[in-house]
Amino acid sequence: MECITSVNKLKLKFPEEEGLLFNDLTISIRKGEKVLLLGPSGCGKSTLLQVLSGLIPQSIDIPIKSESIQIPDSWGFIFQDPDSQFCMPYVDEEIAFVLENLRIPKKEMTGRIKELLATVGLFLEDIHTEIRTLSGGMKQRLALATVLALDPEVIFLDEPTALIDEEGTAQVWDTVKAISKDKTIIIVEHKIDQIMDVIDRVIVFTHDGKIMADGNSTYVFSNFKEELKRFGIWYPNAWEEYKKEKVQNTFTEPSDHMLRLQNFRGYRKKENAITLEKAAVHSGEWIVVTGANGAGKSTLLLSMMQLLKTSGDYRMDGRPIKKFADLQRKAYFVFQNPEYQFLTNSVIEEITYELRQRNEVSNAEFVKKANDLLTIFGLKDKQKQHPYHLSLGQKRRLSVATAFIQNPQLLLLDEPTFGQDSKNTFKLLELLQEECQKGTIIIMVTHDLNIIDHFATRVWEVKNGKVISDWKKDEIKTGSEGNVYEYIF
Amino acid sequence: MSNRLKLTDILVTIVISIGFGILYKIWGPLYYAVKPFGINIDQLIYGMWFMAATVAFLIIRKPGVALLAEVAASSGEFLMGSEFGLEVLLYGIIQGLFAELLLMAFKYKRYDLLAVSMAGISSCIGSLILDFYKGYIGDLSTWNLVLYMTFRFIGTILFTGVLANSIVKALEATGVTNLVRTTSQKDFDSLDQ
Amino acid sequence: MNISFEESWLHKVNPALKLFTLTFLFVFAVTIHHLNYMITFTLTVSILFFFCTGQPYKHLLLFLLPFLLVFFSTAVSMILFGKGETTLFKWGLVNVTEESLYRGLHLGFRALVFAMMGITFVLTTKPVQLFYSLMQQLKLHPKYAYSFMAAIRLIPIMFEELQTIRDARKVRGIQSQKGLSGVLKSIKSLPIPLLSQSIRRAFRIAVAMEAKRFNSSNARTFYYHIGFSIYDLLFIVYFVLTISLAYFFALEFPLFPVTDVRH
Ligand SMILES: Nc1ncnc2c1ncn2[C@@H]1O[C@H](COP(=O)(O)OP(=O)(O)OP(=O)(O)O)[C@@H](O)[C@H]1O
Ligand SMILES: Nc1ncnc2c1ncn2[C@@H]1O[C@H](COP(=O)(O)OP(=O)(O)OP(=O)(O)O)[C@@H](O)[C@H]1O
Ligand SMILES: [Mg+2]
Ligand SMILES: [Mg+2]
């Protein structure tokens, strides 16, 4: 079959970096293929996608060399960050922007817009809706609609569902499936469970940007399973095998410190944005907060960190928590967007930042800890790099790693595992488990059901700005009935 | 290596400038609040209004950026509901044009403190010309006028030169400027290692 | 600004034409040196500001406050330090003369009129409509128009970002210091992250726009057709009429006994 995009002997290097990211990489994709690019975090998948679409070097000025390169005539690109891909304020205007580029006559536009929104399953009362009022999942579907408006031969997708809830993820992939019939689709994704029936070719990369395996999915996943496991790349059933090997995290004895919340409310612009009626949390508990996009999970964590205005009775070890200063050094927060957290100009400065704040850089023990963390998270050889120049997964790991430097009693994490390969996901969760067993209270937002299953001791479900249920994994019942949660209201 | 403005250059310039526009808007009431003190100390902070041009130029280093930045910043200020109303647009165009002309005289080859301070002074002269027509500053008593101009020039150098330069130095440290600057031949050659 | 209001006829005037007319009036106002005419001219603009923007009065009064500050502060510096012969009051360097008093008042009204014209335009024009109109009527290059629209979309995001950066600094253990030095320190440390974030975001959006085939051609169709209507005529006729009336009243019923405020 004819080839639609390819590159022969690609060499690529980021300015001011030491080595080449790609050295003589050759890859070609045939028309109509649905390809999944798989590989450890930081191996260059996102970068390759940008090369194949021609964004590098046309829009993004990064030097490349190749013997030959073929770029598709028409293509669309879905970026990972839903907020940085729109240029207009309203849904209809954004799609119209694409139609204008294609010189579609005005009188056909409204019809086309409605049709496209229906194709991606985005049903709005009024197409003139402000984009910023949409949830993450809805935004990605809008992005898909704008891409479809281009009627492209090839669609590039770079982790389009990293920040989207279960339901939204399923919707996005269903949509992709529905529209993909005679299109070529190239996907970069770590959460592969839901896309196995979309793709028919898998290309696996090693950590240094070389192709390790290439073929249809059954071939790759049955012949290269050991390698995938060793390199820490996701494969179907990776979680099941992990769960079989490792014992489940359980809640031991309630010990020294605890949180108490009663009639707790968080406010955004004077409006009640989150309510938690009543809860008592003991040290060693690991609470997972779940709920749909826009339900109020981040709001809950921000409120508990006292970064939003709150009311109600909130106590830690009996002492009331009224303002941020009451939590200083006791609690630590990892933001949903890792970039928000970066304050310095290099990875090493970033991880030792808290130590320098407390004048403890000379403390050998802490410095060792910082170095260990970098090694564990595979950031050791990125020490001098600017945090913003990391890959998405590396950014996330760096921002989470800063949490382990301190020993907070309360650790609040907003989706700490998104965009990770399996190795890093498990390492990160195991580190959290260690903290938890040392007595830290962990409250974390995630959409990943496996984490709830294996690690959480308790689940809070958020819906429409309210914590609607609070389930505890019951130690007594687990033995006989598997994962049963006890409703404790 | 092309020197024409690409979409990325334009959008980045305009976003920076709209940011400055918001700052300019806040600067307005501040300026008017210090104005009645007389002796023209308000003129010391006037230089702020020339800053978008030099900051944007130092970041992107291409022809046309200074003018675009100053026009965009004043449009931003205007659309935020500036107390100066339409006046800001006119001032923005003239100030941007004067800065641009000076940078052109340097053939857009100099990105240092001296070049941007001079560009700022050039903008400043542009604004003074407008003031003569609009604000009747020629009718101020002589001592007052001299003070007025001296203060404005000093403020200009502080804002467009010293401050702008140090802001961009700090930005360069964050690596963000690499996004909009063209890669060097050296980077390209290093691919054959 | 996200305030609910009613659309008035001024909203329906073609944005490019509105801008053009007001620019013309701006230049026109600079050529007025006659204090009485300046005052009546101010009246014609303030009628539009007060009755035709569709905003509730509470908001209008709120907008008016800074304008009054502008009025007084512009007037005062000329009144106190301007040249003049007929001294009314003298104290140290302060020398209030009749000429400088009138000139100061004149400048005050001029500043007020500029401010009101500007805010009237802003309150009755949606940015997206303005830039579509500029592309269609004044052939502004789409590269600039869409960059402006994208940048305006980013304004609220930038404000949120500012808050997040402050939160992040708190979480990472930077104690917010009290007092002036604390404030100065935070003023110093916020712009750089904010600027670099905005630049990165702008860059990503530009890349996304190019990925959506922007730039591949100059010719394009438009989702919004901004044409001309009867309201445009109304707008022009309003000014022709009221300005003539203003001139008539200024000559017939002068408030102050001056004609030219220039020296
Ligand atoms: N602008 C840059 N400057 C320097 N190095 C960079 C830059 N962007 C990316 N890198 C590096 O290039 C490598 C590949 O990055 P890329 O984003 O392509 O990885 P990825 O495979 O998509 O990873 P992930 O799964 O975490 O998203 C990473 O090691 C990253 O640190
Ligand atoms: N900065 C903000 N200002 C005002 N409203 C906001 C802000 N951030 C979020 N919201 C609104 O608050 C509600 C809850 O948002 P929140 O970010 O807490 O949701 P979430 O559950 O974390 O969703 P996601 O899974 O997408 O991260 C949403 O309706 C959202 O539109
Ligand atoms: Mg990536
Ligand atoms: Mg969230």
TrEMBL record, chain A:
Cellular component (GO) terms are:
ATP-binding cassette (ABC) transporter complex
**Where does this polypeptide localize?**
Cell membrane
Write out the entry's keywords from A to Z: ATP-binding, Cell membrane, Membrane, Nucleotide-binding, Translocase, Transport
**Short name of one Pfam family:** ABC_tran
Q: How does it sit in the membrane?
A: Peripheral membrane protein
Keyword Phosphoprotein tagged? no
Which molecular-function annotations from GO does this UniProt entry contain? ATP binding; ATP hydrolysis activity; ATPase-coupled transmembrane transporter activity
Family recorded in the similarity comment = Belongs to the ABC transporter superfamily.
Task: Give the protein's recorded name.
Answer: ABC transporter
Per the UniProt record, the source organism is Fictibacillus arsenicus
UniProtKB/TrEMBL annotation, chain B:
Q: Does the keyword Transmembrane helix apply?
A: yes
| Entry keyword set | Membrane, Transmembrane, Transmembrane helix
Q: What InterPro entries does the record tag this protein with?
A: ABC_thiamin-permease_prd (IPR017195)
Which residue ranges traverse the bilayer? 12-32, 44-60, 88-106, 113-133, 145-164
The keyword Membrane appears for this protein: yes
Q: Its domain of life?
A: Bacteria
Name of the protein this chain belongs to? Thiamine ABC transporter permease
To which species is this protein native? Answer: Fictibacillus arsenicus
